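Protein details
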Amino acid sequence: MRRLTLEPQACGWSLTVDGVKNTLVYHSGAAAETAARDLAGRLARAGEAAKLLVRLRDGSVAGRFLFPPTMGAADEAAVQRAA
C-alpha cells in the first residue's frame, strides 16, 4: 500500500509519497488535497492500494482516506470471459 501524507508548511502544503524522493508543494490546502486525491485514485486504478493521511497545522490528523485497487476495463473483460 502506497502512503501519501498531506501536511501544512510555513508557506503552503506539502504532499509526500512513500517511495518518491521529491515532495510536492502547493500554495493552498484545497489544491493540495485535490492533487493528493487524484494521485491516490490513479494509483488505485493502476492496481496499487493507497492511503491518504491529511494533517492539520497543529499536527493532528484531519482525515484518513483509503483507495483500494480497482480493476481496469481490460481486467474486467478477462474475468467475464473466464466465467
